[in-house]
Design a protein that fits this description.
about 270 residues; mainly alpha; about 5% strand; globular
Length: about 270
């Protein structure tokens, strides 16, 4: 690492990322409640601002020398934790299978949305469970690092209240994002890489926005799959408790470059 990890760096990167998003939205006249309504709103509301914010974050990560610890996870989780991200995939499957025929979406819309969601998955995961987690781990234990990385992820969505979304909806979104952050944290831990979390994040956003027009019939078997996300959330909190408790039996050996080798205390 070129720069030693500190929580203040994680916070500074989050503020800068949000500032880029907010300024771009203001310049482009984005109304958050309309993002996802058309190809134009997807491009202005997702693709352009997230691309700009992601480029900034990629440059910052390079300058900090944090790519390896941001993308690779040395702390692992039990194999049963794979169940958590697997369950989180299913609501999106229900949205696709239940709304594919009914949804009135053009090819240009789906391409733009797919690109935008991939950018969101890359940018928000690198920010919160990549550089964010690296910075937080520079001072805090794993429990606090998990909590504050999820909190930062939740607060990323608070800015939506400034661009047309109601306060009540924003608070709900922040809470759901915190819970989803726990799912994505475990995805990093069990897979050993941030990349799978980026892809899962993109999948969740794409399937949510692509069928946000209510094309999935309420009460159908496919819509029922949407409830599985709450099972995933509950299991994620239990999984976090398990891996954090297990982490207390680990000790870290810090190398000269600031990276850490984990060994098991027997």
């Amino acid at each position: 690492m070129i720069v030693r990890p500190r929580p203040s760096i994680a916070v500074a990167l989050t503020v800068a990322y949000l500032a880029i998003m907010a300024v771009t939205w203001r310049v482009l006249g984005v109304d958050y409640t309309e993002v996802g309504d058309s190809t134009d709103t997807v491009v202005r509301g997702i693709v352009i601002p997230v691309a700009l914010a992601s480029v900034f974050l990629a440059v910052a990560t390079t300058k900090l020398g944090w790519w390896r610890p941001a993308l690779r996870e040395d702390l692992r989780a039990p194999r049963w934790v794979w169940l958590v991200p697997a369950l989180m995939v299913l609501p999106g499957v229900g949205s696709v299978l239940g709304g594919l025929e009914a949804a009135d979406r053009s090819r240009s819309f789906l391409v733009a949305l797919g690109l935008g969601c991939l950018l969101v998955g890359f940018g928000e995961e690198l920010l919160t469970r990549g550089t964010g987690l690296v910075g937080l781990r520079g001072r805090f234990g794993e429990a606090a690092s998990w909590f504050f990385s999820c909190l930062l992820f939740g607060l990323l969505h608070a800015v939506n209240a400034l661009f047309g979304q109601g306060v009540g909806s924003t608070v709900q979104q922040v809470v759901v994002a915190f819970l989803a952050g726990s799912v994505l944290y475990l995805t990093r831990r069990v897979s050993g890489t941030l990349i799978l979390g980026m892809l899962l994040h993109a999948w969740i956003d794409f399937t949510t926005l692509a069928f946000s027009d209510g094309s999935v019939e309420s009460g159908s078997a496919w819509s029922a799959l949407g409830l599985i996300q709450w099972v995933a959330f509950i299991l994620a909190i239990a999984g976090v408790a398990v891996v954090l408790r297990g982490g207390r039996r680990d000790s870290g050996l810090t190398r000269a470059d600031g990276s850490t080798t984990i060994r098991r205390v027997r």
